[in-house]
Amino acid sequence: MSAPILELHDLTIALPPGGERPHAVRNVSFAVAGGEVVCLVGESGSGKSVIAQAVMGLLPKALPVEGGRIVLQGEDITHASAARLRELRATRMSMVFQEPMTALNPVMTCGDQIDEVLRRHTALSSAERRAKVHGIVREVLLPDPERIVESYPHQLSGGQRQRIVIAMALVLDPVLLIADEPTTALDVTTQAQILKLVLELQQRRGAGVLFITHDFGVVAEVAHRVAVLRTGELVELGAKHAVLQRPQHGYTRMLIASVPTLQLKERASDPNAPLVLQVKSLDKTYRDRRFLGKRRSVHAAQDVNLEIRRGQTLGIVGESGSGKSTVARCIVRLIDPSGGSVLLGAGRDDIALMSHRALRPLRRRVQIVFQDPYRSLNPRRTVAQALIEGPVNYGLSTEEAMQRARRLLELVRMDAGAMERYPHQFSGGQRQRICIARALMMEPELLIADEAVSALDVSVQAQVLALFEEIRARLDLAMLFITHDLRVASQVCDQLAVMSGGRIVEYGPAHQVFGAPQHAYTRALFAAAPGRGYAFGTA
Amino acid sequence: MSALVPTDLAALTVESAPVAMQQGAWERVRRNLSVRIGGFMLALLVMIALVAPWLGTVDPTLFDPASRDLLPGRTGEITTLEGETREHRFLMGSDSFGRDIYSRVLYGTQVSLIVGVCTAIVAMAAGIALGLFAGTFRAADGVLMRVMDGVMAIPAILIAIALVAMWRGSLLTVVVAIAIPEIPRVTRLVRSLVLSIREEPYVEAAVSLGTPRWRIMLRHILPNTVAPLVVQATFICAAGILTESILSFLGVGLPPDIPTWGNVMAEGRAQFNEYPHNIFFPGLFLALTVLAVNMLGDGLRDTLDPKLAKRI
Amino acid sequence: MYGFLARRLLATLPVLLVVALLVFLMLRLTPGDPAAVIAGDAATTEQIAQIRSSLGLDRSIPEQFAIWFGRLLSGDLGQSFYYKTAVTTLIGQRLEPTLSLALVTITIAVLVAVPLGVLAAWKSGGWLDRGLMAFSVLGFSVPVFVLAYLLIWLVSLQLGWLPVQGYRRLADGIGPWLEHLLLPAITLSLIFIALIARVTRASVLETLGEDYIRTARAKGLPEGTVLVRHALANAAVPIVTVIGIGIALLIGGVVVTESVYAIPGLGRLTVDAVLARDFPTIQGVILLFSFVYVMVNLLVDLSYVFFDPRIRY
User: What is the pTM of this model?
Assistant: First the structure.
């Protein structure tokens, strides 16, 4: 470690009046030295992005720096002029953002966007610039630099676009790189590649990296030191192993305890429990019918076979585009399958190709909880109205439905007073509980959770997962758990199916799939999970 | 923004509410400056329209050749229907028939507001029905939208002019003629709202809960379309008032015996050089009324439907 | 890209067909007998019947449409009842003034509105922004003809800077041509400016909120570059779109403006034809305007190819 590149001294940034608290961050102090990676961890709303943007001078006027200093290589830039900040950006400090899909100008070629940086900050000739652009594109491990330089962003994948962003950030060799959740929006396998790239580049150039993330697995992979932020205040700062294995502060301990590990819990499941769901050769093909132009078929799901027994949880794991959500929606008949059969319960009713009218009485037996708690409830209806809608559709009287609603709210650990309130008065985690209660109101045989915890903070996620477990045990429910996060899957699943490109590539009991994965893709997926095998501890 | 984890900044810097807001929506509407000013002006004009007979006016059809072309503020004589003649101060002057512009302008307020509101009602009713139809039944959607495109391809004023010319100007025909070109826009709006709200997870949840289609439409989709539709209705009202005046001005609107601002201006055209008051007073009222409605609409749009705000 | 172009071209055909159908129906389904109108008050029943059969009015509606449409495709818009000449000739005579007015108006409007909108979006919340929003509401609210009279009164009658009414042909010299067109063009452009400036502002404002603007600033680029190369370049599509849609407003405004300023163009022709119930002329003018509108919007759509590389590839 060398001299500090970035120092924050008692940084305090105000929030506009009327916000949830007066300051976005308060009295935050830490430093990033050359050649080291400091991970800034926190949940949403903790203020970590604010710090990143403050350093770069990109904060909106609504968030002024009220106190403290930001020092870059000995220069106080807290209140630097706009011109000075523009000079420093890309030359001494650079930033990589979270969303690669929208980080690039859609109407400029990738090469031009990298070239812009050179044109603005250097006096190189156009030939020299072109050479440098090609050089950096090669350094970020993009194949076929000639083509990439001429391409527009929409012709590249998310991972490739992120590499371009990294290229733009590093082409002038800045001493500080700020990465704000650069891999959160990427698939697990791509994530692993990008993390590796950032580390390599950082080591080669000896830059300091401020790495912002909410994912402790990533922290375990890349950090040298860790800073933990809670509602704008720094609660813990230290070397990686110290913080992750012997956390001092209660909040840090709680966070680390919430991180789902890849250790499987021992689960007893009865192989002879009655079959609740059996899916055979499920197919879903989208035919792109255009008048002129290529006719494309997309096989969202192909030849999918699975079964779930009462009291068991089947997990479907896969990256985006793998078809897992498609399968879930076909089972609950929000999408109509193109072929195959979906057999429900003991009566083996095949609902795959049934007409919607015939389907109605059977719908109650399969219920689903969606990913986005902020859009799963009609903002104009009270919680009570949302909960009783289902049963009332099937003839239950309003009073009985209300009673059942109250009981179920208790089951999901929500206060009965919630009945008269509106969705916007609740947090994401609470809304998700309401959605779970709504699903349970129908007394289904099968509960599907479609990425139901992906949009939640780690601590809330842990609570909701625990709730799912409790419900499954209490009601002896069968569950289908869709997720892209292996660690979440390891917490709740008895059986596991791995999907890729619309097909199931591996299927079996969880401990078997986790312990001895057969398929190459499964192995790659596991290998890519950041921080796997790291022994997180609580003191 | 990734749906996976909300970014810090968004989580911190407040609001940005979802499609329909409950608490505070009414509050925000009331506090908006545009709504206040526009609403106030509109209320004033409605008052004028309602109490016109008591604001020092005379029957707007009364005329007296002796009081022709008086400048604003002059006094002259006016002959009532019963035949008696009395003194009258022509606050806004008189036209070439000797009619009191002031009375005609104030009574014209009634007509214009009625036309505006009726146009909005007709256009909205037809547009909502068609839009719901198109959004629900895929089969009809293609044909219907082609027809809408066709109607939109003909400039609105030409349709209105042609229709009124064909059907003879009366309140009903003018309202329908002005409403027809506005229908496609409403249809498109409703259709796109229906299609987008249908994709929302809470609508999907309703489907899986076994709620029948019509109830989903009524309970989940329609209430969340109210805000943008209200905004659209105010803009149609403004367009209606404007178009009616243009039609009357060109001589193809309401019959000349009904005092509308457009008619008053049409009659005053020829003498504009010497007697501009024929044009300016009705023109002022027209501009203020349309301005009031537009401001109201702007304010409503900014507070109720920020998404629409971006689309103009 | 070629798929996109072909599809757009083909998509215009049904629209044009619907327009033709609507125009035909609009004027056929009217009360009153066109034959009687042509024949005049003193005509006998036989004369009226003769005119009716010569106009084909005794055939069934679909047949009439087929014949009418056929003539339309061969460029025959019929004979004006009122002027007793071919409609196409009439249109030809009145084309230049309207075209001149339209072109001058669009030029003024775009040159003024786009920079205003960009600046307003850049300094969002500032005095320019607020002023522009206020002005644009006014622009939508003051009717074209009221504004016209206001400007005539102020500029021509009181100040005497520009002529009151009338039109001078381009062939007679560009000075007088411009002089007579300036006031009408300014009048008409005001509502166009209000519309374009508003959409430009909204579009640029939305673009400025996009992630790649943040990236551009993070690269240390000067604000001017960010505004033009990154924001405006991406905001172009909605702006160009609204210019196309605004043509409909322009056409409506032309009708009124020509009326007030006594310009002998197509707008005036429309009004005169309507007052005289001259169906063939009304049909012809409406068809022409609609066709122009559809074509302009087609060009706008095709121009997306230049603005958005996602369509090109």
Answer: 0.81
Model confidence at B140: pLDDT above 70: yes
All domains in chain B, ordered by first residue:
35-50+109-311 (1.10.3720.10)
Burial of B270 (0-12, 13-18, 19+ CB in 10 A): exposed
Q: Strand pairing of A225-230 and A37-41?
A: parallel
Q: How many pairs of residues across A and B have Cβ atoms under 8 Å apart?
A: 123
Of B206, B210, B220, Cβ closest to residue A360: B210
Decide if C293 and B310 are in contact by the 8 Å CB cutoff: no
Q: What is the mean pLDDT of residues A449-454?
A: 91
Q: CA-CA distance, C272 to C278, in Å (whole number)?
A: 8
Percent pLDDT > 90 in chain A is 48
Contacts of B245 (CB under 8 A, 6+ apart): B112, B253, B260, B261, B262, B265, B286, C143
Element containing residue B127 per DSSP (H, E): helix B101-136
Which residues of chain C lie closer than 8 angstroms to B151, CB-CB? Answer: 18, 22
Name the residue type at position A251: Y
A448: pLDDT strictly greater than 90: yes
Give the best residue of C18, C239, C288 to mutate against chain B (max B CB count within 10 A).
Answer: C18
Reported confidence tier of residue A25, pLDDT bands at 50, 70, 90: very high
C304 — contact with chain A (CB < 8 Å)?
Answer: no
In this prediction, residue B25 carries a pLDDT of 67
ipTM over cut 0.90: no
User: Do residue A97 and residue C225 have CB atoms under 8 angstroms apart?
Assistant: no
- pLDDT tens track for A412-427: 988 888 899 989 888 8
Q: In what order do the strands lie in the sheet with A275-288?
A: A296-309, A275-288, A339-344, A349-350
- Look up residue A364 and give its two tokens: 């109650």
Predicted local distance difference test score (pLDDT) of residue B204: 92
**Whether the Cβ atoms of residue A164 and residue A153 lie closer than 8 Å to each other:** yes
Tell me the pLDDT tens digit for each residue of B21-72: 445 567 777 778 888 899 999 999 999 888 888 887 778 777 777 778 888 8
Residues on chain C touching A168 (C-beta within 8 angstroms): 215, 219
Task: Determine, for residues A107 and C218 on separate chains, whether the beta-carbon distance falls below 8 Å.
Answer: no
Backbone angles phi, psi at A95, to 5 degrees: -135, 140
Give pLDDT < 50 ranges for chain C.
none
Chain B residues inside the 8 Å CB shell of C242? 312
Give the burial class of A402: count Cβ atoms within 10 A of its Cβ; 0-12 exposed, 13-18 middle, 19 or more buried. middle
Q: What is the mean pLDDT of chain A?
A: 88
CA–CA separation, C283 and B154 (whole Å): 11
Cβ separation of A85 and C220 shorter than 8 Å? yes
**How far is it between the farthest Cα atoms of chain B?**
82
Q: What is the DSSP string of C217-246?
A: HHTT--HHHIIIIIIIHHHHHHHHHHHHHH
Nearest to A107 among C219, C308, C313 (CB): C308
Task: State yes or no: pLDDT of A366 exceeds 90.
Answer: yes
Interface partners of chain B (CB pairs < 8 Å, 3 or more) are A, C
Distance of CA A321 to the CA centre of its chain: 15
Q: Which domains does chain A have, with CATH numbers?
A: 4-92+174-258 (3.40.50.300), 103-173 (no CATH), 275-528 (3.40.50.300)
